User: What shape does this take?
Amino acid sequence: MAALLFECLGGGGRIVGPRVLGIDAAGKHGWVGAIVDDRGFVAAHVGALNELITWAEPVATVGVDIPIGNLPEGGRAADTVARGFIGLRRSSVFNAPPVAELRQDSFDETNRQLAERGQPKMSRQTWALLLKVEEAEALASSDDRLIEVHPEVSFRAMTDRDLEWPKKSWNGQMLRRRLLTDAGIVLPDQLDSAGVIPVDDVLDAAAAAWSARRHAQGQARALPDHVEVDRTGHRLAIWY
Assistant: This one.
């Protein structure tokens, strides 16, 4: 199976589960990645998207918390269905920006054009992520191991109920770390380069890896069930 990796032990070897990479956008730090295999957490690192994949190799699947694929008119079913799935934390899912506006030079100009087309305006948060969206889309076009994930979708699937506390709160972070532990992904108290990253970004990268592992094992589900496809062939789905 392509999702399985071969581990040599002395003169022989054994088949182990998939080694995967989960990646989350980490603001001024760029991206943070977490490697997970069937035995749990392996390592975390900070860098550019392509650098993290090179660092993590070999991996079967790469789960990235960023929109991959867009519709010209905006508004993907994946985003709408994910908000319904998350429930209480639905505000954490934002609409993927329409591909035609990705390369506009200013926030105000982009929103002026969106308004002229009768489309919802873009938030500052979404605007700040545009370069990362472009970076992920370019890589997904040449590497079919990349899938779109959303950490709050992953955590919601782990617990099978709404998450009571937001991810930046103490209670929320302890809950999410406990869910990862219960899923066999035990994060250490101290990290190397990723130790300077905000806690919620590290937790999100690990949750992205949880979904990537399920995908590599053939156990993942998609939001929505009937996956849309954009004009470049990207499947517009959030996997968990």
Summary: The chain has one domain: 19-97+129-239. Helices lie at 49-56, 77-86, 107-116, 124-128, 130-140, 151-159, 170-182, 199-216.
